[in-house]
């Protein structure tokens, strides 16, 4: 039998990752933090905003958001709204871009602000014929 096992000869990987290198892939920090990272390292705790929702006690804002998204899905027959749909719901709830962003998106997009009383800019229903 010439096809015997040889421990010195590496086996083909077949797409498998070698996990005995000692490197922990969870220790990789992003090249440019965006302020969107949700992983908690040692000593980091959830914010009250996130912890209360995960424990089943939503704030008024979180509950209103949930009800608005649910109403949108029911009215439009869309079980999975697109991101444009989600933005439409946020704008119709009254959210406006009134402050500078807390996210670091680099040069991928330009930040702006608008007046708090500006129109939503989403399509409104056509007026009914009288």
Description:
The protein is mostly helical. It has a domain at 48-95. The protein has helices spanning 48-54, 60-76, 83-93. Helix 2 packs across helix 3. The chain is elongated, with a radius of gyration of 25 Å.
Secondary structure: elements and pairs:
Blueprint: H1 48-54, H2 60-76, H3 83-93
Helix pairs in contact: 2-3
Keywords:
3 helices; mainly alpha; elongated; 27% helix; 130 residues
Outline of the structure:
The chain is mainly α and about 130 residues long. The protein contains three helices and no strands.
Number of strands: 0
Share in helix: 25-40%
CA-CA gap between termini = 92 Å
Which parts are unreliable, with pLDDT below 50 for 5 consecutive residues or more? none
How many helices? The count is: 3
Shape: elongated
Give the radius of gyration. Answer: 25 Å
SSE arrangement, N to C: HHH
């Amino acid at each position: 039998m010439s096809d015997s096992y040889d421990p010195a000869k590496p086996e083909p990987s077949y797409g498998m990752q070698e996990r005995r290198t000692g490197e922990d892939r969870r220790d990789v920090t992003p090249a440019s933090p965006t302020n969107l990272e949700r992983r908690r390292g040692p000593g980091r705790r959830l914010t009250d905003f996130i912890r209360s929702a995960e424990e089943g006690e939503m704030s008024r804002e979180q509950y209103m958001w949930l009800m608005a998204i649910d109403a949108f899905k029911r009215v439009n027959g869309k079980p999975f709204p697109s991101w444009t749909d989600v933005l439409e719901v946020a704008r119709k709830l009254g959210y406006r871009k009134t402050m500078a962003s807390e996210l670091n998106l680099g040069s991928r997009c330009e930040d702006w602000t608008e007046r708090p009383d500006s129109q939503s800019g989403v399509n409104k229903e056509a007026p009914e014929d009288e």
